[in-house]
Amino acid sequence: MFHRESGYYKTSYASDSALYPLPIARFAVAGFAILFFVVAPLLVSSYYLTILNLVGIAIVGAIGLNILLGLTGQISIGHAAFMSVGAYTAANLATRFDLPFWITLPAGGLMAASIGIIVGFPSVRIKGLYLAISTLAAQFIIDWIIVHTPAISGGFQASIQVPRPTVFGAVLDTQRELYMFILVVVVIAIVVALNIARSRIGRAFIAIRDQDIAAEILGIDVRRYKLMAFAISSFYAGVAGVLYTYYSGVANNEFFPLVVSIDYLAMVIIGGMGSVLGAIFGATFVTLLPIAIDLVMTSVGPYLIEDAGALSGIKSHMRLVVFGGLIMFFLVVEPEGLNRLWLNIRSYFRVWPFSY
Amino acid sequence: MKRILASIAVAGGLAAMTAAHAGEIVIGQMTDRTGPTANVGNPVGDGAQDYIDLINSQGGINGHTIRLVEVDNQYKVPPAVEGYQRFKSEGAVLVGLFGTPITQALTADLAKDKIPGTTPGFGTALAADGEAFPYLFPAAASYWSQAGAAVEYAKQQMGGLKGKKIAYLFYDNPAGREGLPVLRKLAELEGYTLNEFPVPAPGIEMDNQARDIARRFRADFVISHLFGRAPSVQINALKRAGFSLDKVVSFVWGASEADVAAAGGFEAAEGYAGLQFAGVGDDFQVRRDIKAMLKAQGKEVRESMASTVFYNRGLLISALHVEALRHAVAANGGKADVTGTQVRDGFHAIKDFSLGGLLPPLNLGGGDHEGGGWVRVFKVTKTGFEPATEWFKGYRDVVFELIKEESAKMKN
After folding, report:
1. Does domain A44-350 match CATH 1.10.3470?
2. For B257-312, how does the pLDDT look when each residue is reduced to its tens digit (9 = 90+)?
3. Fewest CB within a 10 Å sphere: which of A11, A35, B21, B29?
4. Nearest of B346, B326, B338, B331 to residue B91 by alpha carbon
5. Which of A254, A286, A295 to mutate to test the interface with B (most CBs of B within 10 A)?
6. Contact state of B78 with A287 under an 8 Å Cβ cutoff
7. What residue numbers bound the domain in which B135 lies?
8. Which residue of B has its CA nearest to A45?
């Protein structure tokens, strides 16, 4: 193979605790950083940047759910509600107190985290399907409270117009500027999540996921860590909600219905539970695939069906069929998700062309 | 060899020219064909498409063809944001939006990109204020105008409102609650008692509210604002509670052929009335023209055409688009390369446009982007929908005052 994994000796604590100990990994990360920070904003057209923006927001949300579902093994069907909490917190702070995004963004996350702790309380006593139902209830309760409290929702339409974020006096309102804004948040989200996973907290989460009684015997305060997982996960959801708010210029509870929670569950499961890369794969897959299918069918469709009206009807329904079919296909090929698929490919090429 | 290269170059040049679409105007149209409101989205999308086909078959606008780019947004925000950017990259000068959250999410972008968007039946009532929302055209009665018109209709039916009891039966979401400010205000002005009966989602159980309305509150009239499966449930629940359907009027999303069919057919729902912002039924010249065109082209008439309430709304959307484009192209010296701002001015130039009676006489100039807030009540008879009134507006002054008040609040 073209790179070597042996012969790198860790001679200091810093090199031992590095996020990427191997040079090839560091080169790859640097390559991706250049690609996304320099090449993409310069070369990619604003239409494709829009798609990247949507993917970026989904990544933040999916990483958050993955910490709860993948690392800690606690299910939540209320993820969209936490996004809603973050969105309205930021919108109220931004419009009533004219606060800048670098305050509203963490504030939205913190508010969602504190609500997340409350919603997470049942997890101390119940798990599995029971917890699923209790978080489902949270989705409806939070939604109802927001809509019926004008002080939060901002009036009869339950939507608050929010000015776009400003950096050093410049308003970020083109897709390119918003792309950079979202990208920075996504990078922070990824780095923090990677480090949580390999810290004491992350290991405690994994211990709870694998066997909570054993974890308790090992001396892990299961209650505290379960609630912490809810808090961190909800914080991410809240931040994703704030990003949505700044991205579209409005906070609206109809952006975050139950089906969005289900979408995020799908992202985590398709991507592969328990890894940050899996969440990224899942978010990208679920967001991009319908668009890709639609674009392909739009370009191929007219050659198959002449009648434009009939085509648009068939196209939409075909998209659902193909989307569902591909999800099933990938999960049958690799039940552990896209991340495992990628790891399989990687470990094959690691020793290529020798099989051992 | 040189000749081959030259011909390739010429062919390439031709391809580039067709790619630039000389003499073509692009409209972006959103629909919801597979989401929660697909029952609306499919006929609306078909109607919008068929009308554009009809105009193209008649020679387009000043000889320029119209290309309709349709995106199914599934009533979700991310696909709609992506779809809007796709419209933009395809060069759309005009966008038809579908869905209230989608309208909310794209309002800022439309104003920034100076591309007008139409939102008949969606979005907030405030968008009627053309000064506050220069690029948003609801172009059909908002929920506030519908509330005003419903009260007006109740007044006509009961011969006065003083001391009467009106029940507002609504879906308990922001859209459902939107009628409340107008109804409350009119209750003060007209002296009727208003009682509010929220129906929680998904609205498939309404017997409690119906009994409450019929037996305890003893309402003289019911104004209902429901979506999806709820309107048909409401028809049956009110009947079971012994409330006469003659004393019910629904907002625009609660009275379609599908609702009546789900409630047990026209005979079962006889007397039920609904507000409409586009004409209902088959008896319109434009529908005959479309059928003739489809026949001439050897195509089948779509099933969705039978769903006249929604299909005709699709016709309304495209007819408005085409009419605005006609004015814009005329203002542009007959050339196809109109800008979004010209199309906006084209909307403002729309005057007394009624599409052979399918639409109310719409005027979109003068700062009122709602076009006056016209509605018409259609009543269910044994055989189908029959008009119960002419086109009318209810309490337009009160509604518009409220709009101005709210949008002034928003600016601060």
Report:
1. yes
2. 999 999 999 999 999 999 999 999 999 999 999 999 999 988 888 888 999 999 99
3. A11
4. B338
5. A254
6. yes
7. 24-141+282-348
8. B89
